[in-house]
Amino acid sequence: MGAGHGHRLFFHGHSVVHRAPAHLKVLALVGFMLVVVALPRQAYVAHGAAALVLLAVIAVSRVPLRYLAPRMVIEVPFAVFAVLMPFVSHGPRTEVLGVAVSEPGLVAGAALLMKGTIGVLASLTFAATTEADDLLRGLQRLRVPDLLVQIMGFMIRYLDVVTGEMRRMVVAMRSRGCEPRSPRHWPVLARSLGALFIRSYERGERVHHAMLSRGYTGRLP
Amino acid sequence: MHVPDGFLDAPTSVATAAVAVVGVGVALVKARNELDDRTAPMAGLVATFVFAAQMVNFPVGAGTSGHLLGGALAAVLVGPWTAILCLAVVVLVQALVMADGGITALGTNVTLLSLTAVAAGWLVFVAVRAVLPRRPASVVPAAAVAAFASVPLTAVVFTLLFSVGGIAPVAFDTLLAAMVSWHAVIGIGEAVITALVVASVVASRPDLVHGARPALAVRELEIRSGS
User: Residues B174-216: pLDDT tens digits?
Assistant: First the structure.
């Protein structure tokens, strides 16, 4: 098992942001985003200031923007929604480039775009500077129930194992000439998922037995 | 499918977070009945499976594809309480490790994708299973109906939240009609895939399917003598 160092978004570094305790970073992220979400939607200066604070943190963390920017595509579906907002909202109409759009919708769309973008960038910065182990320990210090932290730990630990297993199943399928292209291939994909569930469940049982044989009593050291 | 930051206002986000904390708290206690001390590793691996299953793209045709949400599937396979934990952990990991879904919308996302989807899926599943004959094979159509219903029902809850704390003045009935009709289409895909996955597990390991347990309990040992 290639127990990787850090997860996929993690960007190795030794900056102040990297070394800060994870529980403080979680609190800072939640607090910062609550403030951003609570800002009045037309407070453009305040949003700009929040963005500058975030950019300053990114600069201190030495994570290049070139690394973060491509990963912001995760936001695209909601950017589309934000762009549609002026067209589907009601309220007084206003003209933009000769098209009549809803004025409150325009304001709301812009606000969503600003808040959403700051949110995605803040979460990416958090993920890029926090190792999975530190995150779990931080959540434990924040009094997140122990069982929940353990489940998270197992999920993060076996993420690459299970997704790797799934990738090999898809490769095996393709090498036998089945390229899923239409709903006709759903039964094949679904049977792979069924097999993946059985394998994951049985792996869980084996992991549990291995833990019991090493003295597991319901708590991780 | 994840709600990002700023989509719902701060009071609504905090209120849904409180709902999520209570719901997951109850699930933490109840899941021990389903899995006893195996809870941590089993739920962890099932959560990983749900995450991997969401990564599989099902081609719809014309170059587009969709993926499974998995609330009803997880409820049928491992039981509702464990499923709530699994889906909640998936949403949590996606928000904190993969920057998918806003951190202030975490409570909203857990409420929708975990609590609502699993509860709707499981309740519909139990209702349909009750009217079908007590056979392991009955689990498949019940799972299909449950998966179909869980998607538009989650969309209804989202629309309610949006009408309370949304940031845009979209007419409630317009949004409801658009969301429910669109998610009914998605629900068809969810139903077909869920049914196919459940059918393949029921065929090979019916003992692993939590929703099939009552049917397995009444199965009697058959001794057939050769003639």
Answer: 888 888 888 888 888 889 989 999 999 988 888 888 888 888 8
> How many structural domains comprise chain B?
1
Q: Which of B54, B52, B46 shows the shortest CA–CA distance to B74?
A: B46
Residue B222 falls inside a structural domain: no
Q: What is the pLDDT of residues B47-79, one digit of tens each?
A: 999 988 888 777 766 666 677 888 899 999 888
Residues of B in contact with A174 (CB under 8 A): none
Whether B224 is in a domain gets the answer no
Tell which of A117, A197, A203 to mutate to test the B interface (max B CBs under 10 Å): A197
Stated pTM of the model: 0.88
Give the CATH number, domain containing residue B94: 1.10.1760.20
pLDDT above 70: residue B102: yes
Residues from chain A that touch B72, judged by Cβ atoms under 8 A, are none
Q: For the residues A87-105, what does the mean pLDDT come to? A: 72
Residue B157 domain-assigned (yes or no): yes
Residue B93 domain flag: yes
Does residue A13 sit in helix, strand or coil? coil
Nearest-CA distance B4 → chain A (Å): 6
**Residue pairs spanning A and B at CB distance below 8 A:** 252
Q: Do A205 and B42 touch (CB under 8 A)?
A: yes
- Which residue of chain B comes nearest to A139, CA vs CA? B96
Q: What is the 3-state secondary structure of chain B? A: CCCCCCCECHHHHHHHHHHHHHHHHHHHHHHHHHHHHHHHHHHHHHHHHHHHHHHCCEEEECCEEECCCCHHHHHHHHCHHHHHHHHHHHHHHHHHHCCCCCCCCHHHHHHHHHHHHHHHHHHHHHHHHHHCCCCHHHHHHHHHHHHHHHHHHHHHHHHHHHHHHECCCCCHHHHHHHHHHHHHHHHHHHHHHHHHHHHHHHHHCHHHCHHHHHHHHCCCCCCCCCC
Interface contact A201-B46, CB threshold 8 A: yes
Domain that holds residue B114: 10-217
Inter-chain CB proximity B85 and A153 less than 8 Å: no
Closest residue on chain B to A33 (Cα): B104
| A17 lies within 8 A of chain B by CB | no
Is the pLDDT at B218 greater than 80? The verdict is no
**Which residues of chain B make contact with A203, given a CB cutoff of 8 A?**
45
